[in-house]
Structure formats: structure tokens, C-alpha cells
């Protein structure tokens, strides 16, 4: 049969048979399962498959194979099949032992493996299959085969076609892009009358011609008209903090609505692998985390109004009036501000003109398949930039991470900095900034400047991903909501003495200078710019909302 290949390697015949049995029992209908008893046999199979142009989706290897660590064999896979998922098989008795944990983390940091997996128990081992299914989904996403994928067809890379890809990325909706005159584009358009481009082909076959953002929200069932309604709680923003507030608010009986000018996830959707989020030892993408949180809030009864922008807040006798860009209003008993922040603009005019044509802000997870075999640059020194560089390295010829700081440790988690520095195909240039670049309709070069010497260098580049700084989405707030000089919302003990006197009481820890309005997440002054911190603040905000409503 044809299809992608799953490979298991172990020099213990009984253990190999157990793994092979589990793989064949569940996946043989859609995948070809191959088992090998030594490293040499496995490498010969990989070479044969690579020479034949076959696809390998997953390789599993025992802790020791042919007298050497299984991580060494798995490291060899990346050069032959850069998109294959690689997992080390660990006995149940070794889970929790320091030596095994250290070895697995070291192998991940050095780019030798992607995951670990506990060896299957006697069938049916659903925990084993849950992990394997997750690995296969991750592989499908890198190969642009994710379930419920939306096809975007455009005449050019930039313009509205790029904007649509940005919208879908913010919605955490799997999507792929092709030009109308490409083979893939012609195939998608072949059975349809001439349509206005760009267009979206939805998973159920529905076609949206040059849709507005609101059209996309309606098609996904996430657009409602909240005008004139009354709620216990209005949450402004649907990133991790807003989603957390939505889950806890709705689950605790508050009539809750979440309003966002974009969609779910905020900046977190650009993270291709969050490995240090509590409860996900094998990591989770920002998009997947956002989708799960959205479904959780929806199940508890939270309502969502996407592609709608809040333009003003006012404290009135009957509640807090929330004004929308549609002209409507919502009245709330309490408000949680979680508008998040976006990446700061680079400010180089020639590069801004190429947005969507090689230049992107964030969105590395969705744009990665489009840079296969190219020279790619990522600008930024925080975790999101490091995660993007690692993900892009599976597609690009080479990835260069450009960091203004003198070292990665200044803004990146230690485990991630080690992984970036140890990954083949990733180069790190510290103390460097992008000061120019351009191309004829599409990016083809950048100008880099050494911050210490001032020396400039022109380099070939086909893609640039910018993940620098944080600009809070707070410019719309009324003067009654205090902000610091950078625009971040001031809360709790940081509220000015004059505002405290006007409030008539000390504000609650996350409360702003406007009574009944709280702030959480990246847009709050003094917040820790981490997903887990934003989620924590969202949950704490709901406890404080209950205190406000009880008065």
C-alpha cells in the first residue's frame, strides 16, 4: 500500500514487536508501518525511502539501539526527513528518574529528538495512541494536511491575500495558501466558475469570494451581534488572559461575552511549540492551546464577538457602557481588559512595503511551509522568536536569529536558548539589528548592522519574521483609565493617588483607575510576558470580579 511511513526501531525483538503491533493495529490503514532491529537496518531503510521520494511521518527508537543511545539514530533522521516527528521510547519505570529526564531534555535541546513516549502497555493502550496521534497531527500540520484546513487562493502573495492569511492565523484556523496560476491553485479553481480573488475554500466546500473579516467570523460561527445586551462580565481581548477569564467567568455562573477585533489566541498563536506550559510535557502549539481554551469557554456558556472592536468605556449609573465600532453598545457589571500587545513595527519603509511578500510579523507557524529551501531571518530575542527559529529550521535552508541583546539569555528561557544554539541550520547573531532591505516585489536581501561597531552588511534573504518588542492595544481607552508612558494599563497599587481619591477606596490588585474595570495579561503594566502568567491573571481577575459584584 502507499502512504506515509511509520518506523519503529529497537534491538530487543519482544519490545519491537509490542510497538509494531500497536502501530499496525491502529494506523496501517493510512500509514505503512516498518520495524527494524538495528540502527544500520533503520538507516538503510531511511536512505531507501529518501531515494524513492517517500514520506516518513514518525520514527520511534528505543533508549538504546545497537549499543548506542537511540537519540543518536533519531538525530540522523532530520537530515533525511526534516519534517518527520522523532520520539524516544522510554520504559514506564524510567519516567520520573532524574537521569532519564536529563537525557531527554538534553536531546531535545540539541535537536536530536522532538518528543519522548512511554512504551506501550498491553493493549489497548489508549495513552500511547493519544500521544502517537498527537505526533501525527503535528506532522500533518507541517505538511499542510491538517484536518479542516482552509485553502486560500490569491493572485499575489501580498495585499488582501496576505491579510486573509493573517486573519486565519489569528483565528488559529489551519490554512494553506497557493497562487491562482500554480498547479495547486488551478486544481482548486478547476471545478468552479471564475471567482473574485482572493477566495477561501472552506473545509465543507463552501467558497468565500474576497471575504471581509466579518464574513470569515460568520462562516466559523464566531460572530454575533451583542448590541444592546447586558452582561455580568465583558472581556475585551481573546488572548490567553481573555480566554482564561472567559473560562472561569462562564464556569462560575457569570453571563460572559468576549469581544476581540481579531480572533482567538493573540500573540500566542504564533508560537509553534510551547514546551514549558504546565501540563504539556511534550509541548503544545500556541494555536492548539488557544483552540482548546476557546472550546472550553464556549462549552461553559461564554459568548464570543469576533472581528468587532471596542472603542470606548464609560462608567454610567446602570453599569459600564462598552461601545463598539459597529455603533452598538453592551452594558456590563464588570469589565476585564485583556487586549494584549502586538509586535512592534521595524520602521524600515522598504521592508514594510513587502509585508506578505517575504516580510511577516509573527505567524511563523502558518507561513513556515512557504519558505522551503530558502534563507530565512527571524528578528527577536524572546521565546516566541526562538520557537519560530526552531520551527522554520525544519523547512528553510538556513535560519538566522537576529538579536539586539548581547546574548540570548537576556530575554529567552534557558532551555530554549540551549535548543536554539544547538540546532543545526540555525545561526544566532547577537548585538545585531536589521536596518534595511528590499526586493523587486518580494524580499531578496536585508541590511544588518553590528550595534557595537556600526558596520553594515548586506545579506541574501527570502523571508523575514519580525517578533520584536510589545505595543499594547490600549490607544482606544478613555483618559479615565490610567496608563504608563509606554501605554500599558496601570492597576492596583500602581494607580496614582489622585485616581485613588476619585475612586474613594484602594483599587483591587488588578483593578484599573476606572471602577469595575480590571486588566490582565500583556497589556497590564508590570505583567510577566508569559502565557502561563496571562492565564493566571485571567483567573485571578474573575475572583476579583466576584468581590466587586458582591458589594
Automatic annotation (TrEMBL):
<dbReference type="InterPro" id="IPR023753">
    <property type="entry name" value="FAD/NAD-binding_dom"/>
</dbReference>
<dbReference type="Pfam" id="PF07992">
    <property type="entry name" value="Pyr_redox_2"/>
</dbReference>
<keyword id="KW-0285">Flavoprotein</keyword>
<feature type="domain" description="FAD/NAD(P)-binding">
    <location>
        <begin position="231"/>
        <end position="538"/>
    </location>
</feature>
<dbReference type="InterPro" id="IPR050097">
    <property type="entry name" value="Ferredoxin-NADP_redctase_2"/>
</dbReference>
<keyword id="KW-0560">Oxidoreductase</keyword>
<dbReference type="InterPro" id="IPR036188">
    <property type="entry name" value="FAD/NAD-bd_sf"/>
</dbReference>
<protein>
    <submittedName>
        <fullName>FAD-dependent oxidoreductase</fullName>
    </submittedName>
</protein>
<dbReference type="InterPro" id="IPR011006">
    <property type="entry name" value="CheY-like_superfamily"/>
</dbReference>
